[in-house]
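Table S2 (continued). Query chain:
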Amino acid sequence: MLYLAMATIHFKGKSYVQNHHLTLKYHHLVPNPAASLTDKISLHDNLIIHGDNLLALKALLPTYAGKVKCIYIDPPYNTGNEGWIYNDNVNSPMMQEWLKANQPIDKEDLARHDKWLCMMMPRLKLLRELLRDDGVIFISIDDNEVHHLRMLMDEIFGEKNFIANVCWQKRYAPSNDAADFSATHDFILVYAKDRQYSSDGKVVETLNRTKRTKEQNKLYKNPDNDPRGNWASDNYLCNKSAEERPNLYYPIIHPKTKKEVWPSQTAVWRYSKERHERNVREKRVWWGLHQENDAPRFKRFLSEVEGVVQSTWWGYKDVGHNDEAKKEIKLVFPETKQAFATPKPSRLIKKILEISLDEDDIFLDSFAGSGTTAQAVLALNQEDGGGRKFILVEMEDYAESLTAERVRRVINGIPDAKDEALKNGLSGSFSFFELGNPVEMQAILEGDSLPNYADLARYVFYTATGDEFDPAKVDQESKFIGENKDFEVYLLYQPELNYLRSTSLDLEKAEKLGLPKPNCKKRLVFAPMKYLDTDTLERYRIEYCQLPFEIYKFKE
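Corresponding output:
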């Protein structure tokens, strides 16, 4: 049973999943050279990751926490006909019963809304950690869960960070066999990670304005041959009353009749009296070509218009529809009757890219499906020379045969494409990773399935500091693995049980670090054991952290 109150949503299972993302183990990301399209596999390349998207998001944190500018996800809509499976291994008897019953989830499952929310909550919390402070998230959804998702987003992201609920026209014609209403639109919820406000309480724009089209520019003309160029007239009135804005309620003298012109009883002028007088001096007040109009309008010049503010209605003519999306994927996979059932049109994703990213930003899609996101990123880079990167996560078996294969084909070129860029190939590269085994701290104690040095260094550095790990800064000889504003971090480790049993932080290793300079950073040294007293540790400004127990000690 669901009930809503304030900015909190309550559902069955919430108490078990609201901190589930914190209990997840970090997993290795294992490179798959055969599935990649690159000269050098790297976590800093465009990425396609195959594996459970909850675990994959956790695995991405050491490299990408706070780095992603925009996230787009297209999760299951929970229509009851999709056959999605809830399989998060949450430590709760009730959740374990859920895993056994009603799989896949259908309309007969009375707890399907609760399960959907249990699935979404930990993923959204990890996605928020991956976003930059100025980042945004777009989520496609329909009527089945939009009301629940809005409340869940208000709780996780905060009500003040809500930007818009966009309606996307997914169909260009109604379906005659629909009951009562034919659904022709879906929703896209848009939230900021941390929306900014000016000192006077006004919202600071989070999204980019898009370039004006030729059709929009046609609205600007120059009937009076103004030397400043084409212009369009704008309303001179403001929808406030005289009681609300008394300084904006005053008479304006008509230049031809010399009579006083007052705003209507329910409105005031948009500009103060001083600003109006300036508008007159600058010849910005328009009364008609022969001063025949009864009320003034404001001349706004095309040269002053920076771009187009987004509407919450996205029609199919501007961003594509479902049929267009299916034709796009059929073009890429002509040998397959139906490569993917529910693709999104690339023009829709391109619209999101244009209003959310600058040329070198990172875009993440953790329900990657057919890989439309990657195609849109590559196409936009080809168009404007940008260096945007994509990260795709797909958990289904078609991650390589469909998701990655589509990206591979559009990079290499689609022979039958009408678009010349797509026909010749969008260029680019990607590294394909599989989700590997967890980084088990107990394994360090028992010598069972030990992680390699780089993997443990990435895990230790991020978990201890909360900052991005840079493998280029690692020096295995000195055991230095990176630094942040507070610490230098060192790791004494080799994936060998004998090394772990015999290695310790001793005076010789401390002396190799050297005596600290005045006001230098503290040194975090991770090692299996130590043979140094407190005074020596203080002299060398060392904070000893025993593996594996104290990795979490400093992050907070």
